[in-house]
Amino acid sequence: MSAAGTGDLAGGRESPVAVITGAAGAIGSTYARALSGAGYRLVLADLKEAGKLAAEVAESGPAAIAVATDVSDADSARAMAEAAVGEFGRIDLLVNNAAYFSQILKKPVEQITVAEWDLAFAVNVRGAWLCACAVLPAMRAQGGGKIVNTSSMTIHGGGIEGFAHYASTKAAIVGLTRCLAREFGQYNICVNTISPDYTAHDGPLFDQQPEMEQRLAALRAIKRPGRPEDLVGTLLFLASAGADFVTGQDFWVNGGRIFS
Fold it and tell me: Catalytic positions, please?
């Protein structure tokens, strides 16, 4: 059921296919470069233009395509999966990375509007659910696959003021992962979660709180800021044959700020 692995490629198997949502952002593009380097053909799904990234990774690695995708829309999620199968014939890995995060304005919970609350859940939770359902037919037909969802350390550190809508979506992702793992396991589909700590990258939220990066770094066992590259090793493990018996789990990547 291996979704990838150099052993598979060396043995002549056609290179695996990964779909990455939110691929145009700093974390998504880091994932794309790493997976391309590991031999994956890529489907880069984002509302933002990802064509330049697709061309970049395809220059030195396997083929890659960009697909304009609104993960919160069921038709768009299905079209994304259909484009992947139409272009490459299979889907081995879905990385649910798209998120409503950097656009958020932090505010007291009673001041969060219904529209803000609903938008956070539409992208972060509904989007992960819709994309998982969209890739299910292809993974089921081919006998297995991997899905990696994205949660956050905000839910494990006792919550965070001003961020109730975001933190609530990320708690829901852990629950969704467990439910998908239970239901999809019969099809040899492994579903897990990566929970990063605060990882400063592009977006206005980071400009609002420049002190956050160093403040959290001081609390870690490994006393430095988190980088998108720090997430790559966990992703590659979860995508590999070495994780074929790992499902329903939440992997904390936080430099030792909080221990499970």
Answer: 166
Highest mean pLDDT among 99-113, 171-185, 215-229: 171-185
pTM listed for this prediction: 0.92
Q: Interior CA angle at 14 toward 189 and 75, to 5°?
A: 50
90-111: pLDDT as tens digits? 999 999 999 988 778 889 999 9
Whether 108 and 85 have beta carbons less than 8 Å apart is answered as no
Count the residues in the chain: 260
Report the number of distinct structural domains present in the chain: 1
Q: Three-state DSSP class for 104?
A: coil
Give the residue among 258, 254, 124, 255 at the shortest CA–CA distance from 197. Answer: 254
User: For residue 118, is it within any domain?
Assistant: yes
Q: What share of the chain is helix, strand, coil (3-state, %, to 5)?
A: 50, 15, 35
First to last CA, the chain: 29
Region label for 211, one of left (φ > 0), alpha (ψ between -120 and 50) or beta (otherwise): alpha
Return the exposure string of 214-252: e unless at least 16 CB atoms fall within 10 Å of the residue's CB, then b.
eebbeebeeeebbebebbbebbbebbbeebeebbbbbbb
Task: Report the 10 Å Cβ neighbour count for 67.
Answer: 22
Cα angle at 259 between 255 and 257, to 5 degrees?
35
Neighbours of 109 (CB within 10 A): 13
Check which CATH number belongs to the domain holding 58 and give it.
Answer: 3.40.50.720
Give the span between the Cα atoms of 95 and 208, in whole angstroms.
Answer: 28
Question: Is 1 inside any structural domain?
Answer: no
Whether residue 62 has pLDDT greater than 70 = yes
Tell me which residue range forms the domain holding 229: 6-253
In angstroms, the CA 72 to CA 51 distance is 21
